[in-house]
Design brief:
alpha+beta; about 290 residues; single chain; 8 helices; 10 strands
Length: about 290
């Protein structure tokens, strides 16, 4: 799933390639991708893109005097930029193409989604805050005003495990499964530690790991073409998706806890005092 660093890089890429250009066609190939109907998708046509913003994991394209095109790429969605879009109209079918946006230059982008679970979402709204997922977002962890005190205040009454708290978009916007693993590894903290029980020193360490991990990932992705962002994300991850490999910090074997629809990875030596976590949905430290 694209998370804050990749969506931030996509925002920068699209800002450079879309701003000042006219949308001549916005075509839904998979009707299920559209989550709004008024204004219609066609309301974007003939309008000039004035900017691109990011809200958590959401991208928002603004047009002059018109609506915003807001999208969430979900778990398996992606944006594919094309300097020259194919001629003709794409045919609806079972392929990954969900939506196509064409510019007056002949360039444009496709929104695609792999797999059978179709969760890619597109909204056409007058204000991005009209999108329920945007309206409920917590603070952006890279915002200037998001300091250690603000972070501590969010966690003070949290009764959940820290892994789940970091992934909650209404608490902190933009962090998903992959970067929460990376942040907790950098902080040398168990994913199942209760958020409300963090000491001030642990909170400070976690805050630093949160900011540094995301900032470094954004810098690695900055300036890359959209098609290279997935590979860059994978190459920069230390523990997530690396079950069975050696921890780059201590050399211990990276382990995994699997859930019904996801998994987490961690290093026992760095994060849990050398003790493996039980691999079941209601995981606890093995006695």
């Amino acid at each position: 799933m694209p998370e804050l660093p990749e969506v931030e890089a996509l925002k920068d890429f699209l800002t450079e390639h879309l701003t000042g250009h006219e949308i001549v066609r916005a075509l839904p190939v998979a009707i299920s991708v559209l989550k709004t109907y008024d204004p219609p998708l066609s309301a974007l046509e003939g309008r000039t893109v004035t900017g691109v913003g990011r809200r958590g994991k959401f991208l928002a394209l603004a047009t002059d005097g018109g609506p915003h095109l807001v999208t969430h790429l979900a778990r398996a969605g992606w944006l594919q930029w094309k300097d020259r879009l194919p001629d003709g109209m794409p045919k609806p079918g079972k392929g990954p193409l969900a939506l196509r946006v064409a510019l007056e230059t002949g360039a444009g982008f496709d929104l695609t989604e792999a797999g059978t679970q179709k969760r890619l979402a597109v909204y056409v709204v007058q204000d991005p805050e009209e999108v329920p997922g945007v309206a409920r977002l917590g603070p952006d962890p890279l915002a200037d005003g998001f300091d250690e005190a603000a972070f501590a205040a969010l966690l003070k009454d949290e009764r959940r495990q820290i892994k789940g708290a970091l992934r909650d978009q209404s608490l902190i916007a933009g962090v998903g499964n992959a970067y929460s693993d990376e942040i907790l590894h950098a902080a040398r903290m168990s994913p199942f530690k209760l958020a409300a029980k963090l000491t001030p020193e642990e909170t400070r360490t976690l805050y630093t790991a949160l900011r540094e991990t995301l900032t470094e990932a954004v810098e690695r992705s900055r300036g890359l073409a959209a098609g290279r962002l997935k590979a860059e994300k994978k190459s920069g991850l230390r523990v997530h998706g690396r079950t069975g490999e050696a921890c780059p910090v201590c050399g211990d074997t990276i382990r995994e806890v699997s859930f019904s629809d996801s998994s987490l990875q961690y290093c026992p030596t760095c994060q849990t005092g050398g003790r493996p976590l039980a691999d079941r949905r209601m995981s606890r430290l093995l006695k």
